[in-house]
Each structure stands twice: as C-alpha cells, then as structure tokens.
Amino acid sequence: VSGPSQLRIRGGTVHDPANHIDGEIREICVENGRIVASLPDGVPSLDARGMIVMPGGVDIHAHFASSSCNHARRLLPEEHAADPASAPDAGNGWTPRSGSGGTVPSTFTTGYRYAGLGYTTAFDAAVAPLLARHSHSELEDTPCVDGGIFVLMGNDEYLLRQVAAGERERARDYAAWLIGSTGAYAIKIVNPGGVEAWKSGQRNVSGLDDAVAGSRVTPRAILETLADAGNQMGLPHPVHIHCNNLGMPGNAAVTLATMQALAGRRAHFTHVQFHSYGGPGWSSGARPVIEYVNAHPEASVDVGQVMFGPATTITADSPVEYLLHKSSGRKWVNIDIELETGCGIVPLVYKDKAAVSALQWAVGLELFLLSSDPWRVVLSTDHPNGGSFLSYPALIQLLMDRSVREEKLKQVNPKLLAGSPLTDGLPREYTLNEIAIITRAGPARLLGLKQKGHLGPGADADITIYGRDADIAKMFATPRYVIKSGVVVVEEGQLRRAPPGRRLWLRPGYDDAVLPDLQRHFDSYGTVSFENFPVQGIADDPVPSSP
Amino acid sequence: MTPSRVEHVTCLGCGCGCDDITVTVNEGRIVDASPICPIGRTWFGDGQVPSNVLRSGSPASLDEALAEAAALLVRARGRCLVYLGTDISSQAQRLALGIADLLRAGVDSATSDTAAAGLLAAQRRGRAGATLGEIRNRGDALLFWGVDPTERYPRFLSRYALEPVGTHVPQGRAGRFVISVSIGADKGPTPADLTWQLDPKEEITAISLMRASVLGHSLPKSAPQLARAVEVSTRLSQARYVVVVHDGEPTAERRDPLRVEGLIALTQALNQPTRAALSSLRGGGNRSGAEAVLTWQSGYPFAVDYSRGYPRYTPGERGLERLAAGGFQAALFVGSPMEESFAPKAFSAVSTIAIGPRASQARFQTRVAVDTGVAGIHEAGTAYRMDEVPLPLRPPLSGTRSAAETLRALTDAIRAELERSGS
C-alpha cells in the first residue's frame, strides 16, 4: 500500500484546536507519513477548497478487538446476515476483504468502517490479560486504525492479594509487568471488586467500602492502588475507570464518591452516562456528575451516549449483564475468566418509546451540554454498548443542532424525564471546533498521544476532510478524504487503501523482585505457564515512555 | 549429539492445550515429552513428517505446484471449497480464509456436528461458560454429563477439573462434589460422590426437570428418575460454583441434539441460585482456533459461504456435505488430512489441493499436495485451547516447510492468476 510520500492539502478550512486553529484556510503539508511545516513547489496536491479539514478521529473507548467481542460476534448471526459487507472495490495493489457488519462487525469491516467515518485511531477498552494474545491477532486483522488495548485490572486475584496485604509497591510492579506482558496501553478498571464478587457468589458490590468476597479488600482500596500505580509509572493515560453499579438507579452517588476518592489524582472515568442516574427511582443524575468534572481538572470522562436503535452490551462487568438478561429476557453470554475478570454479553435495542432508554439518551446529552471543558469530555457511545460507532455522526448532529435535538426530545418517552436538565431547554450548540476537540484533539491529549489529534509539524499525518453539508450527520458520516499516516485511505468518499494499523503499547519498567512471586502464583493457580503468558511478537516497538 | 530440551511446549493432541510439556530432541527427533498423556505421546510422535511437493502424484517444485494450484482454484472461483483441517496455527487459518474470500469459496472446518449443534444452541440462547482455570479455582460441584474425560481428554481431571488445588477450593479433590451421569453407553467418571444412570430416552426430560427445579418450580411427584433429578439439582443449587462438563465431540451413543441446548439452559438457570459454568470438551489440533478466526473474519464460527462476495452462514449444509453432493469443482484442504472422517471419495472427485502436515499421504487424490510442518511441533504461532484461550506455540523442531508461508505464497499466486484472468 502506497501513496505519494508528499502531499499538499490546499484551500481547506482547518480545525486544529490543539494548535489554536479554528476554521482558518490553511495548507497542510504531508511528508513520509508526518505533517511538515512546508513542502517545495510541485509536489502532488489535494484540492480541499470549500472543505473542512480536521485531524483523524480518535476513539478513546470502544469494544471491537477482543475475545469478548468475538463471543458477541458469534452470538449475532442474525445481525451479520442483515448487514453483509462486500469487499470494497480493489485497486492500488490492495486485496480487500469482505465481512459482516451489525453492532459488532468482523475485523476487516471494522477497520474499513472506522476509516470511512474518518477515525484513524481507536482503543479496545477492555481486554482480559489472559486473552490479550487474541486481541493482538484481531488488531492485526483490523486495518486503517492505529491503537491498541487497555488491560483489565481490579478484579484480578494477584492484585487483590497485594491490596489485601497493603503491598502497594508490589501491586505497581505487577501492573507494570502486566501492561508490558499484554502489550497494553492503559490500565482499565471495571467495577472494582464487583466481578470477583459475582464470581465468588457475593453477586456484586455496591459501595466503595464494601468488602470484596469476604476479604479486607474494598473497591476504594483497589481504585487508590491502581490510580497511584498508573500515575507513579507516568502512564500517558491515567487509569481508565468503569465505576461500580453501572446502569443502576441512583448510581450517580457512587460515581461521585469514586471521583472524590481519587480527587487530586489523574483519572479517566468512562461511559459516565451509564453511571449518572439519580435515585432511588430512575432520574437524571447528570448535573452533579458533570459539575464535579467541570471543577476538577484532574478528572476526565467519555460520555458513553445511548443512541436509539440496536446495540450489544459487552462488558467485563458480568454481574450487570446477568441482571440485564433477567430483566430483558434476551440471550446472554457469561464467561468467567480465571484469576482475572469476567465477560458478559446481552444484545439490546434502545427504544425512544422506552422510558429508561429515553432517560439514558437524555443523561448523555446533558453531560455533553453541561460540560464546561470539552478537552475533558470525550465523545463515545461505548461502542457497541450504547450504539455502534457508526452513530457518532448522528450524535454530533444532536450536539450541534438544538432544533434537531428538541424535535427528537418531543418523540421520546417523557415518563422519567421530569426534572431532567434537557427538558428545561439547554440552548448550547457545539461548534465545529468543539466537535474537533471531543472527537480528536481531546482524546489524543487525554491518551498522551503527542503525535495524534493535531495537525502541527511532527504529528502523524492522520487527516479527515469533510465536504460541507447542511446535514451535519451526513457530513460527518461521509468524509470526502481520509488520510492515515500519509496514505490516502478514502478518496472521494470511497475506501481505496487499507494500510495496517500501528500498535500503540507500553513497556513500563518494574522491579524484577516481583517475578518470583508472580511465578509462584501462576504455578499455584494458573493453567497457562508463566513463560507462555506474555504476548510476543507485536509488530511495533512500544511507545517510549516520557519522563 | 547431545539431546536438547524445549520447555513449556503446548500440546494440541486434544483440546486441553497443556502447555507444560518439556520436549527432548535428539538428532532431529523427539525422544521424550513430559509430562505426557497417551494422546499427547501419539500426537508428538518422533516429530518426523514427510516433506514432499507433489503435482498429480509426482514430485514437483513448490513454484510449479502453487502455480498449478492457483490456476485450478481460480478456474473454480465461486465453486470451490476451502477446508480448515487440524494441526495448523491460527496464523495459517487466517491466511486460508483470506484465500477463501478471494476465491468466493465455501468454507468448512473440523468443527464436528455435535460441536456445531452446541454453537447453534449458543446462538439461540447465549451460554454461561468459564475458562478452564475457573473450574480449577472455583468448581466445588462438578456434574459430568455422559462423559468421563479420562480417555479422550486425559489430563483434564488432573489439570483443571478435579484434582488441583484452587483459590476457592483449597482441599483440591476433597473440596469438590462429583456427580457422574451416564447416558446409555456414554459413561460418567468413577468413582463419584453421586452416580446416575439415564436411559437416552429419558435424558431431555431429566434436563428439563432439573432446570425447572433449579428455577424453584415445585414439581409433582412421579417416576423415580424425577426424584433423582430433583435431588441432583438441589445438590447443585447448594454448591458455590457448579461446573457442568459434557463432551462437545461425537461419542459412542447417538446423541439427541437437544442435549447441548438443555445443558446450556440448565447451566444458565443455575446462575439464579448460585454460580455455574458449562464446560464443553473439544478435540485438539486447534479446531477451536478455526472457529475463533472464522468468527472474527466473517462473523460466523463455521459453515461460511463466500460465493456472493461476502460471508453467508450455511449451517444447514456443511461444506463436506455439499462437496459430496457434487456442489464444488475444486477444493483447498488446509491442515492434516489424517482423520477418518474426511470423505476421501468426495475430495477425490474434484481437483483438490492439499497443504498441511502429511498432505502427501492424504487418502484422497490430490492434484497438488504440499507437505508442511505441524503447528506446535515444527511451526510457531497461536493455537486455541477448548475454552478459547489462545496459547503460543513453541515448536521443538524446525526445518520443515511452513504452512503459513506456503499459504502466503499461494495467496500471491492466486492474486497473480486472478489478475491474469482479469477477474
């Protein structure tokens, strides 16, 4: 796969918020996969007059390349049959692949569809350490997007033992070893302690100070240990937290308690829409959650918006999926993963006439519309939990166009919306620059990806060019050009090339003294040899750690 | 020559995926493997495999053979079968599926009909499962449903299910209650803490009654078998973590296809009073890997047809059946062709290309046969355990032709042929 090694993008209106460029007509110069300040005359050029130029999109939280996703794919033959994906038109020496879509598309189709959406970086946000090797294989078959995985911690036996013993330094060394061994980019905590509670018969935890499975460990201690570990290691992205009590009425209280427990520590709270409900019945709890975030620069969030339509819930938070299965009657997968975590899957449809779906939809929009710092509030649907990533353009339209939003609001079930800020008429409309922040510049900055999310010299040449369209959703759904590492991937709206993505992963240092103890743990309770556990042969070198 | 040793080798003899094997090699032969079970001993053997390249039965160069293979397959584009056999790595499986996509082929795999029934049932209902280590660490009540793993999965009981000490089962075997159910000739393990002999005709009713009992329905008194069903389900409901073990592969007794669906539903139901997982015993050779790769590349775990230019699910007619019915003009058999179940006549009736370990010894006629190494013995890569945990392969031997490299070369030859033929 090749393209011109040099390219000048002329005449486009550039939105590059990281470099304080808000809708200026500028040239963007590309050389050898990077942005450069200038190019000599006569190099190939792309006429972007009348178009909008942004950095490639960055998905900070999605589920698309994991063993859990593969269980979900397997569960959904009916979705795949309804959305066959022929191979794109070949050309340029590239052999495209066919696949299937639905809420959990096959791997090649996932890569092509991300590119077709103008996204060039994506992270799978929940990978069990034991199954990281599987994720790396899937990522090799997911072209067009750079990225990697977040490794699941917080219900892992070895960590819980260290937390119980107060061995925080050993916990940190273990976390560092685990990130490097699994080829991960960040630590992901899912329902700290709750998955272990589910597996051991306690069913779940509900508060930060609940004892986990009869031990001295609490969700609070897990959160503190891992947040400190991540920050002490200097990880580019701080701990990525899925709080306790996902999807429960009244859970905003535990979400706020979690944020307060980590006050002063860098932390990212994910899909907060699913964690921002008032109680004891169903109501919006968005305002206190987002107001806390607004006031605390060390905290960041992605929203996890619910979009009406089909979705598939895939999460390591397996106790929640059991409840969802019981309440929805839909088919249900549960996989307990030894010594580490869980996996639960239930397909769903969010209906605008269903009261809880409507509330979830409103809560997500409220979080966006009441936020004061777009750099810390990222656009996500927790793909495919709140809806497919293909629904991002429709979400952008809801944020940018108050009239579209209010028209939709009239159609949804209002039963649980009393007192919801959205019903008071939130006038805010996101600007293009704010959209550029919440879909690229912001997530890149929160991920510590210095070469992503902007168009300054030295950045990766990941660029999306949109044709202006009064229909915002259509504009964002069908970019005219997408350039990935300098390669023109989408041309005139057609996918023309599919270069492999680059793996973004870390190998933090740790004290070797942890290894003999870890080996004993594997020998005592594992079923895979300690020596066979680390993923080998990742194509790209780890991202160098910055001091 | 001094013998050399390779540690932490993964065995693909059955689906247990034991990765604790130390293999000793002397003068290019495997002379010892330990710890090893009878199946593993046979699977490793001495590691000697043929290294022929045959074109219509006569020796040929690899380039000639692959060019001929490409020409035959491209001519049959839209009417060929790609069969994923055993003993190839998932890297090779991925390449084979890429070829199937290019050729608009039908795809079949070593997924047995009983395993396929399990996959279909799980697509209707979902399932409650666990990785093997959870059985080890948590299982305190084990229900063996018509299977004694000892013969076909020899180390299952010692490594995973019964004997080992687990985080939540510190007494090992003594901490586990074993219920052994025999269904006709499909015997459960002995000794057990509770045994139950069921006539195959009673089986599905018994599973339904157990599920009703687990869900708390009160059942009217009737036959003695019913009383046993209630007794067993009560015992299970009182456990902390139940593991239901059944054989995903075919056994001596003709099996009611509703068995697996019943067991899935029972295990799911057991998660109301307690926690429970279903463990489906599966054969080796990385057949679970083929299902994983098929799923991530196509969306379906087996029985895929690319003839329309995108994958379609055709579980109602497996590729081998369609081959036997004359539905294909050519076939690409990837993997080891040594199993009894392959329809030799059907493969002989079309232009068949065989690439894999011992391809030249296939019992069906081949137009092209290319011998490769065995995944895990000669070839590195990844293979999947029966619980879909991916394991690295550390080949103790080297020097054979690589299946993955051969398939990569065949892909290039097919691309060139497609360009030449303008399709």
The most extensive interface, with participating residues per chain, is: A-B, 58 and 65 residues
Distance between the termini of chain A: 35 Å
Oligomer: heterodimer
Q: Which residues of chain B sit in consecutive blocks of at least 5 with pLDDT less than 50?
A: none
Gap between N and C termini of chain B: 54 Å
Helix content, binned percent of chain A: 25-40%
What is the tally of beta strands of chain A? 24
| Rg from alpha-carbon coordinates of chain B | 23 Å
Molecular shape of chain A: globular
Q: How confident overall, as mean pLDDT of chain A?
A: 97
Based on CA atoms alone, the radius of gyration of chain A comes out at: 22 Å
What does this entry look like structurally?
The complex is a heterodimer of chains A (547) and B (423). Chain A is α/β, with parallel strands linked by helices and 547 residues long. In chain A, 32% of the residues lie in helices and 22% in strands. Chain A is built from 17 helices and 24 strands. Chain A is globular. The two termini of chain A are 35 Å apart. With 423 residues, chain B is an alpha/beta fold. Chain B is 34% helix and 23% strand. Chain B has 13 helices and 20 strands. In chain B, a hairpin with a 2-residue loop joins strand 2 and strand 3. In chain B, helix 3 runs parallel beside helix 13, helix 4 crosses helix 9 and helix 7 runs parallel beside helix 9. Chains A and B meet through helix 1, helix 2, strand 7, strand 8 and helix 4 of A and helix 3, helix 4, strand 8, helix 5 and helix 10 of B.
